[in-house]
Every structure is written in structure tokens, then in C-alpha cells.
Amino acid sequence: MDEYRLNIIKKSSAEINRLQLLSVFFDDEVIYKIYLRSQVIHQLFANNEELKIEKLDLFHLQFTDSVIELLKKIKKSNEKNVSLIYDEIDLNEELIDRMAGARIDQKSFQQDKQKQSLKINLSLRKLYSVLSELSSDFPFSKNINVFSSKYANDFYFDLTTDQFAQLINFQDKQVYTNVYATIEKRLMGKLCKYDFRTEFYIGLKSGELVIEVYKFLDTDTYYLFFPSRNLFLFCDLTILKDLDMSTNLSERERIVQELQYKNDKLKSNAAVLKTAIPNEVINLLEDSYHKISDINFLNHLNNFDVQSNILKTMLKTDLF
Predict the structure, then answer these.
(1) Which strand ranges, in their side-by-side order, compose the sheet holding 222-226?
(2) What's residue 301's pLDDT?
(3) Residue 114's pLDDT is what?
(4) Residues near 243 by Cβ (< 8 Å), separated by ≥ 6?
(5) Residue 228 pLDDT
């Protein structure tokens, strides 16, 4: 085999190898079929020295080169888009890590709910004594407002200003008042009846204001504590009928969960986008494959310019 022919065969082998790598990357049937057909054409010239080797060179020049460049352009565009997706994923992961580090978990919330309930029950018992004895003693347990300060942002439910106003509305004649606290008369009576046995139910917030709602252990009765005024009133839950209390997740946990779900979708999209090929290109490659599979293809190779020009024009489009 003369050196001229050998060089074209080597060049052809290199083209076939490039096409094979792209067929593996895209894992698309039509690209793989084009690779196999190109391999057959290459072997036909490699095994038959009587065939004009220039036709093999012309085949690659008119067809293979354009297909490879087109697929490389799509690959580069896809990788750029995938890179943008993974940039967003990385940003979400950083946010998840930061929020997870600062996240208040459910376990500590449940434990502190019990401690807060105990503080409130002791404070109310003390308030009863103070009011009964006309004492000037301070009735509230130490750090009674720390619980809401710690958990309101994450675990308290949002109220409208109208709902909030309805909950804390009362008439002066309905309450006992001293310098430290205000409590509904009927509520104090019920607390005495049930020996101050209550537990934290839910927290509510509207802007910077918070309300703690408590439930009697022995009956379906609720009352509220409004820390800003040290106010205790019965709590009408019908005012909260539109409140969604279906989730026990804190606000941070909910956001983290949403970000994790979003990242899962982004990763799935990235995997698909990485090897995506526009339908217009697939249709063109299908048509090209059928043409190079024609048994008389080599005899009409000079007429393949039209298909080659279509491939080259596709390279200049903004499809990808």
C-alpha cells in the first residue's frame, strides 16, 4: 500500500474513532448507526485497494467531518447548560449546609415545649396566689419568654393581623388585672378546677408579635398567653379554622426539604440535558444515515454535497 493511500486510511481511522467517542457520549441509536456504517465504508476501502481512496477522503470531508463538528457543538452547548445547572445545585447545597448548621431540630423543640408548659403552669399557680392574697410578688418563672424568642421563627404559625386582634380582644370586666398580668376570670376558675394541668399546644405569630396556645390536659379547652402584655385568655380555635397545621416541620426544615427536592429535579434534568439532541438534528442525522446506507452511495458520492451543505448550515444555527 502506497504512503498516500496509507495516510488517508490512517486519517479515516482517526475520524472513525472520534465518531465512536461521540456515539458513546450521546448514546443515541442514529449516531451509533452512522458510526457503524462509517466503519463499514472505511473497511471497504481499507480491504479493497482497487477502490479510489480519494472517495473515502471525500466521504469524510463531505459527511463525517460535518457530523462530528455538529455533535461537538451540541456537546459543548449541553455541557455549558449543565454547568449552569450544577452551579445552581452547588448554591442550593451551600444554603442547605448553612441552614442545617443553624437548624433547630424537632427533638429540642419537643423537650423545651414540656419545660415551657411547666413554667406556665407554675406561673399561673403563682399568679392565682398573688391575686388572691393581693400580693405584690412577681408571679412569672424565670426566662418565661425565651421559648418564643427561640422557636417562633421556625415553629410558630402565621396569623393575619385581624386574626391576632380577635384572639387578644377582651372586655375589662372579664379579667383580673394587677401590675404584672391580666387573666380572664373564667379562665382562672377553670385552671383552679383542673389544678393548672395544661400543656403547650401551638405557637402563633404576626410580624414580631407572638401568642402561645395551651391546652387543658383533661378537657378540650384552650387558652392563650400573649407575652407582650402578660395576657391570659380563653382561645377560640374557630378563629384559626383556616390555619394549616398539617406539618410539624420548622420553617428551616421545610426550606431545606424544598431545596433538596429541587436539587434532585435539577440533577435529573442535568442528566437528560447532558446528551440531549434537538429533534431537527436527529431528523437530519436519520436522513443522512439512510443516504449513506444506500448500496449505490459511493457511486453518487459527488451528489452528496446537498446533504453536506445542510449539515454545515445546521452548524451555523442557534438551535443549541
Answers:
(1) 157-158, 198-206, 209-216, 222-226, 231-234, 182-184, 175-177
(2) 57
(3) 94
(4) 157, 159
(5) 93
Contacts (Cβ under 8 Å, ≥6 apart) of 290: none
Q: Which three cell numbers stand for residue 47?
A: 480491504
Pairing of strands 231-234, 182-184: parallel
Q: Are residues 164 and 209 in contact, defined by beta-carbon separation less than 8 angstroms?
A: yes
Check residue 317 and give its pLDDT.
Answer: 58
Residue 295 is which amino acid?
I
In one letter, which amino acid is 66? Answer: S
Cα 73 from Cα 320, distance rounded (Å)? 8
Q: What pLDDT is stored for residue 311 in this prediction? A: 57
Rounded Cα gap, residues 297 and 62, in angstroms: 13
- Which among 81, 70, 76 has a CA at the least distance from the CA of 317? 70
Alpha carbon dihedral 222, 223, 227, 232, in 10-degree steps, equals -170
Residue carrying the nine cell digits 449516531: 31
241: phi then psi, degrees, rounded to nearest 5: -60, -30
Residue 218: its pLDDT value, please?
A: 83
* Res 297: pLDDT: 67
| Burial (CB count <10 Å: 0-12, 13-18, 19+), residue 108 | exposed
Stretches in the chain below the pLDDT threshold 70: 1, 100-105, 245-251, 295-320
CB 133 within 8 A of CB 290: no
Cα within 13 Å of Cα(8), Cβ side:
20
Within a 10 A sphere around the Cβ of 265, how many other Cβ atoms? Answer: 9
Please give the sequence-ordered ranges of beta strands (E in DSSP) within the chain, or none if there are none.
157-158, 175-177, 182-184, 198-206, 209-216, 222-226, 231-234
* Residue 196 pLDDT: 95
